[in-house]
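Sequence, structure tokens reproduced for absentees:
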Amino acid sequence: MSRTYVETSTFLLEGIDEMVREGYYNDRSEGVNDAIRLLLKQYKVSKLHQKDVKRDEAK
């Protein structure tokens, strides 16, 4: 697994830390990875939606 370092706001880190404390995630990395997976999923769904709209407009 590759590593990368990002800067983010204290607010976002506090939110992830809260989820870790509550047992939702084992650590920050797991929470951040889950957030990235969700972002990528939303992006892919959005691209599919755009494709459908263009197809419907071409009819």
Observations:
- The two ends are 45 Å apart (CA to CA).
- Residues 10-58 form one domain.
- The chain has one domain: 10-58.
- The CA atoms of residues 32 and 38 lie 10 Å apart.
